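PROTEIN SPECIFICATION:
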Amino acid sequence: MADPLSLDEITRQLEDLPGWEHKNDKVSKEFTFENFRDAMGFITRISYEAEEQVHHPEIFNVYNTVDISLSTHDAGGKVTEKDITLAKTIESLYNN
């Protein structure tokens, strides 16, 4: 089981993740694309990384936007290092 991060740890980690925010025991961000196809391609790339990390995000998509939220179920729905690691991975996919 993963240990929840403290509020200070989350705040410190998010300094390296522009646009990500912490609220409701999750870290989240909205990503915008030129069109639906690009948004879905992003979601597909995330799916492969999430499977590799055995950690799965909440994903909500409408046309060219993708909202991602991360928390760790086996830590009581709190933010853990697993969430920060996946957020960094997602951010790298978006920037490539």
About this structure: Strands lie at 21-23, 26-32, 58-62, 65-70. Residues 25 and 78 are 5 Å apart (CA to CA).
